[in-house]
Design brief:
mainly beta
C-alpha cells in the first residue's frame, strides 16, 4: 500500500484548500485513512480519519469545525477540505492507511489519530498560510 497526498498550496488566512489522498493498485475504501500534518520543529499531528467499515470520522480539536474528511470511491480518493485556514495550519500534510478502525491516542488533554499502525506513508503536500 502506497499513498500520495496532493493539493497543497499557499493561501491567505481564512482561505481554503482541498487535499487529496490517492493510491494505486488497491482500493482505499478497504482501509481506514488518516490525515496527519507536521510543521517545522513540531511533532507529527494526527488530525483526522475516516473509518473503513462505517465511514465514521474523527477530527482533532485543532481542526474540528474547519476541516472535513470524505471519500469518493469512484475516484478511489479520500479528500480533506481545509476551510478557514489559520497560520498555525501551515505544515506538510500526509495521509496513511490502516486496517480496521481509526486508532486514537490521548496527548495531554486532546485526542489525535495514532500514527502507530498506519502505513503507506508517501510524500506529503505543503500547505502555507500567510498574508
Amino acid at each position: 500500500v502506497q499513498l500520495q497526498a496532493s493539493g497543497g498550496g499557499s493561501v491567505q488566512p481564512g482561505g481554503s484548500l482541498r487535499l487529496s489522498c490517492t493510491g494505486s493498485g488497491f482500493t482505499l475504501d478497504d482501509y481506514t485513512i488518516g490525515w496527519f500534518r507536521q510543521a517545522p520543529g513540531k511533532e507529527r499531528e494526527g488530525i483526522s480519519c475516516i473509518d473503513s467499515s462505517d465511514g465514521r470520522t474523527f477530527y482533532a480539536d485543532s481542526v474540528k469545525g474547519r476541516f472535513t474528511i470524505s471519500r469518493d470511491n469512484a475516484k478511489n480518493t479520500v479528500f480533506l477540505q481545509l476551510d478557514s485556514l489559520k497560520p498555525e495550519d501551515a505544515a506538510v500534510y500526509f495521509c496513511a492507511a490502516e486496517v480496521g478502525g481509526c486508532s486514537l491516542r490521548l496527548h495531554g488533554t486532546s485526542w489525535y489519530v495514532d500514527p502507530v499502525g498506519m502505513h503507506g506513508w508517501g510524500k506529503g503536500t505543503l500547505v502555507t498560510v500567510s498574508s
